[in-house]
Amino acid sequence: MPQTYLGERKPTMVRPDPALRDRMDASAASHGYRERQMNTYLVNLLGALHPDPEKHPEAAKAAAAVVEALLASARDMKDQEARAAQSQLELPSLTKNHAAA
């Protein structure tokens, strides 16, 4: 069924890893979305994070702060994962250096 009010469709290539997809599925289900409603869940979630500031100025202002905090948290998590991966790469070289000493 065409959704002409949405304008031109633009394909997205969002492919979460299986663990993230499982968490998203669980969250959608816990909020009453059925198994085949992931797109509806994501559109509603994104709509809540980016409300129309002309129609909902207070919600848009509050959401902007939430989005900023979420993105900062995402950057922190990525940095932590990168540091953990780097330290795992460095461990074998430390062991080799220690054995040579």
Total beta-strand segments: 0
Number of helices: 3
Instruction: Label the overall shape.
Output: extended
N-to-C SSE series?
HHH
Describe it.
By secondary structure, the protein is mainly alpha-helical. The protein has three helices and no strands. It has helices at residues 18-30, 38-49, 57-100. The chain is extended and about 55 Å long.
Descriptive terms for the model:
mainly alpha; 101 residues
Question: Mind sketching the topology for me?
Answer:
Elements: H1 18-30, H2 38-49, H3 57-100
In short:
The chain has 101 residues and is an all-alpha fold. The protein is built from 3 helices and no strands.
